[in-house]
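Ticket #4471: structure output looks truncated?

Reporter: J.K.
Steps to reproduce: submitted the chain below (178 residues) through the standard prediction queue, then opened the result file.
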Amino acid sequence: MAKGKRKQFFSVQDAREFYLCIDDLLQSEAVQSMKKFTQHGTTSTFDHCIVVAFRSFLFCKKFHLDYKAAARGGLLHDLFLYDWHDKQTRSKLHGFYHPGIALKNAENSFSLTDKEREIIKKHMWPLTVIPPTCREAYIISYYDKVCTSREVVVEWGGALLKAFNLLKTTKSETRDKI
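Returned output as attached by the reporter:
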């Protein structure tokens, strides 16, 4: 592989198959409303859930697990539909309570399988205390943490670079004045 080129880790067929698993969910007002809320940094809840769902879908497909449940549960895992950054509208224990809220919202909007329910309810394990009973829920939990870490690091990294450049500029201006 040529230097600087990144290998694509999925095919068009993978993307098409993923879309077919979640198409009905994407059409709903509830899922579309996730675009209004920020998840981490500048990432919307919708975008976060899409990435978690797609990465989990690919993993489950590769290892012959229930990739459809992973795609659907992954998309709905943060369907809590409020701004968790707003101290007026959220619980102080958002990390512990939002899986139950997301599950209730998903059950009110869609017909879910038991595995999809498990994925949504347990995606914050070990905060949920009771461990998942299916492998797909562990996988969503894992990719949720991976994607969250990346979203936060990108945001912090960008802020750190801005601060560093500001300090560098300020230092050179100060040096020029001496």
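Triage note (M.O.): checked the attachment and the full token line is present. Helices lie at 12-26, 29-33, 45-62, 67-76, 94-109, 114-122, 135-177.
Status: closed, working as intended.
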